[in-house]
Write a structure and sequence with these properties.
Radius of gyration: 19 Å
Number of helices: 8
Number of strands: 15
Length: 287
């Protein structure tokens, strides 16, 4: 049985889902997106994802075609219609279909934004075997545009980064700009040294991760030391441990950077504990 997806107000089988060739999300990558995890049939960090969606839309001068209450209702409806126990809900809002191609933005009073949503089933999402062994990453130059804080669908270079990692036989890549780590291809990056958690401070250089915000809050509540600043790849190689955070990976230990093994080459105690705390607390607050 095919998935049921949501397209511009309608729930339809995925094989019947269509958007116009003139939609600016397709033509110009003029769209933003969010990914919300589902565990035990409930949505994790949903208010944070909605808040970031509105921030991204505002930065691009776009509106949202549905209310926040409707967004929640559609998410829940898709989860139920597709029988999702563990998985993901993807949401994309585009500037819409002006009826022809043009670099100039269409009048928002005339052209309504488009919206598409779909699910991905990920059984056992929270029990990923990789969390027990850790990821290996490589570093690559960060040549993305300067507004990485806006969660747009412009994902070509992150996809290329994933492919560079795959070709190198590792799990992911970390972007480096002017000698400093910005983030992973689809996650925020952290190192741990002498018990201190170090991660890049918020700016337009990185995505303001919803999981990042939750994990740092939980870390501080657990009396862990957190320092928000940039760090170099060489500093990362000399760290005691490292990890990444994202909506789909939660807290994922990193055990190797550019061939340099961190610590014992196994997931460290800080990353392991933070993953446990995040999953426990997020499940409690899921809706």
């Amino acid at each position: 049985m095919s998935r049921i997806v949501y397209v511009n107000g309608d729930f339809v089988p995925e094989e019947d889902a269509k958007v116009s060739v003139f939609d600016r999300g397709f033509l110009m990558a003029d769209a933003v997106y969010e990914v919300t995890s589902v565990l035990d049939g409930r949505l994790l960090d949903f208010p944070g994802h909605v808040a970031r969606l509105h921030r991204s839309l505002s930065e691009l001068g776009m509106g949202c075609p549905v209310s926040d209450d409707d967004l929640l209702a559609i998410h829940r409806d898709l989860v139920a219609r597709n029988g999702i126990v563990d998985g993901l809900v993807y949401l994309q809002v585009t500037r819409g279909n002006p009826g022809d191609r043009d670099f100039v933005f269409p009048d928002p009073a005339v052209v309504r934004p488009g919206i598409v949503m779909f699910t991905q089933a990920k059984p056992g999402l929270a029990e990923s075997p990789a969390a027990r062994t850790g990821w290996r990453v490589i570093s690559i130059p960060d040549i993305r545009w300067g507004r990485r804080d806006i969660k747009t669908v412009q994902l070509l270079y992150p996809s290329m980064g994933k492919m560079m990692a795959k070709k190198a036989g590792v799990d992911d890549a970390w972007f480096v700009e002017e000698g400093l780590v910005t983030e992973g291809t689809s996650n925020n990056a952290y190192i741990v040294k002498d018990g201190c958690i170090i991660t890049r401070d918020l700016s337009s250089d990185i995505l303001h991760g919803i999981t990042r915000a939750a994990v740092l809050r939980f870390a501080r509540e657990a009396q862990m030391t957190v320092e928000e600043r940039a760090f170099t790849i060489e500093e990362a190689k000399a760290a005691d441990e490292a990890f990444v955070t994202s909506a789909s990976a939660f807290v994922m230990p990193v055990v190797e950077i550019d061939g340099a093994r961190l610590g014992a080459g196994t997931p460290g105690p800080v990353a392991t504990r933070l993953r446990e705390i995040y999953l426990e607390e997020s499940r409690k607050a899921a809706i």
